[in-house]
Amino acid sequence: MKEVGSKKFSFSKILMYGFLTLASLLSLFPFYWMFVMATRPSAAYNSIPPTLTPGNMLVENFQKVLQQIDFFGAMWNSLILCVVVTIVVLLISSLAGFAFAKFKFPGKNILFIAILLTMIIPPQLGLIPQYFLIAKAGLLDTLQGVMILSFLNPLGIFLMRQYISGSISDELIEAAKLDGASNFKIYWKIVLPIILPAFATLGIIVFTSVWGEFLWQFTVLRDPEMYTIQVALASLNNTFKVDYGMLMSGVFWATIPLVIIFLLFNKLFIASITEGAVKS
After folding, report:
1. Which InterPro entries does UniProt cross-reference here (predicted)?
2. Which pLDDT tens digit goes with each residue over 117-168?
């Protein structure tokens, strides 16, 4: 009976790993196809059957990108934008999450619900009034004008509040208060080290969302010197005849920083995901 049970368990494990492998390959295929198109001429984009093997034009296509746009300048602008927004969002969200999770004050639940309700408002709805506010403040064509409206992140506040509620006990906070620690010292010395996995998860989410955001950046930035990478790549598509090899090459190299960020914080990201499973 034990042998049969172990065989069934082994078969289920093989089936599970086979399914996960297949799902991983399917999710990675768009990135592989993007790389293939970045190494091929534009005609390969519409070829039938589709071209699935890399070519030898990766450097040539990237040189065309460099001739059309200030690629590295746009990458630098995007990097500054994403790093600043991510750091500020992490600080504001963790402080707000700490307050909502461990403090009592009038209207706490109503305020928290109001913050969550902002998540259901389409961002396009506030585009025009936000544009006039930024224009009135003299922040058009500046990275400050792009980033200032991204500092308050309702999803980040919600995630931090939930994580802090489940991972930090009230007794630990009370013990720190009895020792004379201020609220900020409790946050800095106790809360912050514990929530590093959640920091990594939220940081990856914010960084990738800001890096890939286009509409608001395109609305605020009109000076080519201030273009982020998304706006700069969109300018490659302004001609009647699109060079898809060149376009895919630019998109491919613009994706590399996201891969690097994920690899750097991969362990903390996985730790945050699996912590709930370990507790249960």
Report:
1. MetI-like (IPR000515), MetI-like_sf (IPR035906)
2. 988 888 888 889 999 999 999 999 999 999 998 998 999 999 999 999 988 8
Residue 70: what residue type? D
Q: Is the peptide bond before 49 cis (omega within 30 degrees of 0)?
A: yes
Q: 3-state secondary structure string, 228-254? A: CHHHHHHHCCCCCCCCHHHHHHHHHHH
Angle in degrees, CA 115, 196, 154, rounded to 5: 10
pTM value is 0.84
pLDDT of residue 275: 58
pLDDT, residue 280, reads 41
Tokens of 124: 């396009």
For the domain made up of 57-279, give the CATH fold. Answer: MetI-like fold (1.10.3720)
Contact 85, 150 (CB under 8 A): yes
State the helix-helix crossing angle for 2-38 and 244-264, rounded to 10 degrees: 140
Question: How high is the pLDDT of residue 235?
Answer: 87
DSSP label at 213? -
Measured CA to CA, the distance from residue 15 to residue 21 in angstroms comes to 10
Q: What percent of the chain has pLDDT over 70?
A: 91
For tokens 């376009």, the residue is 247
| Alpha-helix residue ranges (DSSP H) falling in the chain | 2-38, 58-68, 71-102, 108-117, 127-136, 143-147, 154-167, 170-178, 183-186, 192-194, 196-212, 215-220, 229-235, 244-264, 266-279
- Is the distance from CB of 56 to CB of 37 less than 8 angstroms? no
Which of 7, 9, 54 is closest to 35 using CA atoms?
54
Q: Could you read off the pLDDT of 172-194 as tens digits, one per residue?
A: 898 998 888 899 999 999 999 88
